[in-house]
Amino acid sequence: YRNMDGSIIILDVSREKIIRQAAAAAQTIISQSGARQFGLVLYAGDAYLACPLTDDEASIESLIFAIDGRTVPDGGANPDAALSLVKQILDKSQIFEGDITLISDGLGITDRTHKLAKAFAISGHRLHTLLINEAAADGSILTSNRPAMASLAHAGNGLAVNASNATDLAKEISTRDIKHFSISARLGIEWKDYGRFLLLIAAIPLLLFFRSEAL
Predict the structure, then answer these.
(1) Distances from the Cα of 128 to the Cαs of 24, 48, 189, 192, 213, in angstroms?
(2) How far apart are CA 72 and CA 79, in angstroms?
(3) Which of 21, 69, 89, 117 is most buried per CB count within 10 Å?
(4) What is the pLDDT of residues 69-126, one digit of tens each?
(5) Is the CB of residue 114 less than 8 Å from the CB of residue 128?
(6) Is pTM, for the whole model, over 0.85?
């Protein structure tokens, strides 16, 4: 048996000012992405598994909104550590095709981050990015790492979306299950039926009960 689908959300908690936006975007992804398992990874200077893959939506959402700036004590922003941890989780869980969503303001992205994203795409997974823009008091954008986040999503064969439009990404993830049924390799795993052949084999000994005894 293999897990067909799995989604892992990666939350950047390196700066407390972005945590509330990140949590809200994560909740949107979980609640609107259909029936599937979700896992949660948090990172700042290092990465940690906050919640293993589960279909208990309520428990993971309550955990998300309990996160604050002290949840991950390591300073800095290291998305590479988070992606490496997610790869271990997907490999161990034998996920057929997973969706990984990185919710961040884009700090800490390096060449190695792109290499990890490409590795996900090669394995059949998709890495999406939800960008959190830092805004001033008047609502104007102070800084934006949109190009870096968009490039990362492209490398991971995923979508790059603003965190404020998380619903768009949730819809894409929820429709992926339908698209899967057109993939022959997956059909082979889910629908290969040997039952008819087993019935024929079982019928052979039953024929013995219909033998005519010689007089």
Answers:
(1) 16, 19, 26, 31, 72
(2) 13
(3) 117
(4) 888 988 899 999 999 999 999 999 888 889 999 999 999 999 999 999 999 999 999 9
(5) no
(6) no
